[in-house]
């Protein structure tokens, strides 16, 4: 395994995260956009990751994790999501406040402290946004899902996951009454009926940021 570094961790985490909720592999241009880096910098790093047997990639083609890369990425993701859950449950952070804090803390928490956090939290399977927390062996528990945009009118299901990429959207969704595990009925791509109550009009961007049980 290659030398650990926050930069390598960010690449592996982004590649891992891209295919958690859809099947298309990430492209170099998509990776550059997510990380906010120049395509040339991404190409250079991907070549280094491939040399360390962490990713597979052909020129201009998509990028995928090797078994070793996936294992390392799962360990990084586990750290991040356990820290997010810890901040919400133990320190009262809101779900739109934890991502940036976890980005810093995930590199500083020791393995011993991480194990203690997991035990303290009861070894949770999901973080505050509904993303699966890999166990110590990299395994995850996830059920069948559908993106809100793709859910047919009348579809009923629990909210499984909300993307944490946009804190303002997270806060707006919370203001609209939407949260993880709430039961909703789809009216259309921007309107849902929450727990059998009144219709809630969701903010722009929600259709591509909310996943429901299939």
From TrEMBL:
Signal peptide: none annotated. SUPFAM superfamilies: C-terminal domain of transcriptional repressors, Iron-dependent repressor protein, dimerization domain, Winged helix' DNA-binding domain. It comes from the Bacteria. The keyword Hydrolase does not apply. Residues 1-66 form the HTH dtxR-type domain. The keyword Chloroplast does not apply. Keywords: Activator, Cytoplasm, DNA-binding, Manganese, Repressor, Transcription, Transcription regulation. It is found in: Cytoplasm. Homodimer. Belongs to the DtxR/MntR family. This is Manganese transport regulator. The gene is mntR.
